[in-house]
Amino acid sequence: MSEYDAVLFDSDGILVEPPPAETQSTATRAAFHEVGIDEPARTHVQAIVDGVTVGELEEICTAYDLEPETFWEARERHDERSQLEEFERGVRGRYDDVSAIVDLPVDCGVVSNNHHSTIEFVLAYFDLERAFETYYGREMTIESLELKKPNAHYLERAIADLSAESVLYVGDSESDVVAATRAGLESAFVRRPHCRGTELEATPTYDLEDLHDVADLVRGDGRRRA
Predict the structure, then answer these.
(1) Which spans are transmembrane here (predicted)?
(2) What angle, rounded to 10 degrees, do the helices at 54-63 and 42-49 form?
């Protein structure tokens, strides 16, 4: 029997392959072009791709005399479109081991820093809707930048939906581990190829190889703590 009432999963890097940095850079440059900036500074493009804060976004827009809301609307639209096109063209796909967690004996959910509408697309496109009782991505607003992980906001909303007390969060980044800790959850860090050698400052409850390990853990077949 599982010691968890529920399991929450990140999406990019856990359920599906993460978006390539160049794809995100191209989408960001397209957004700049749409609002009249043909040659944005490389450092500004990189800052947005790396996870811009509200303050950084406002400074970048001030440098080009742009309204932050206007630029951000364009950026989010181009970013989402580029992601959906990559899924549809087969450039990005679902990890094979996701099949190991679609029938877990506990309620499951998805919590991601990606757009809520993108997560909705992913679950439908890869036929994963039945595997998850709830899911959260962030809204396409500037305000959502302050609510994404490592903020525990969306994790807490998912926990409330599932009425769960003992919850495991599965992710592939430091911010996932920190967000889980802030939400009072145990965490599992999955070492996908893109994070195989990552050295974490925050310590996850479990350090695992793949989703088969997660499934074994949740079913009570294995317990490998970090």
Answers:
(1) none
(2) 160
Structure tokens at 112: 């991601």
pLDDT band at 224 (very low <50, low <70, confident <90, very high): low
How many angstroms separate the CA atoms of 160 and 185, rounded? 13
pLDDT in tens, 169-194: 999 999 999 999 999 999 999 999 99
Give the percent of the chain with pLDDT over 70.
Answer: 97
Cα-Cα-Cα-Cα dihedral sign, residues 129, 138, 108, 216: positive
Q: Are 112 and 147 in contact (CB under 8 A)?
A: no
3-state secondary structure 12-38: ECCCECCCCHHHHHHHHHHHHHHCCCC
Q: Which distant-in-sequence residues (6+ apart) come within 8 Å of 130 by Cβ? A: 102
- Any alpha helices (H) in 1-144, and if so which ranges? 21-34, 42-49, 54-63, 68-89, 116-125
- pTM reported for the whole predicted model: 0.94
Q: Domain ranges for the chain, please list them.
A: 6-17+93-218, 21-89
Does the domain at 6-17+93-218 match CATH 3.40.50.1000? Answer given as: yes
Give the Cα separation of 196 and 190 in Å (integer).
8
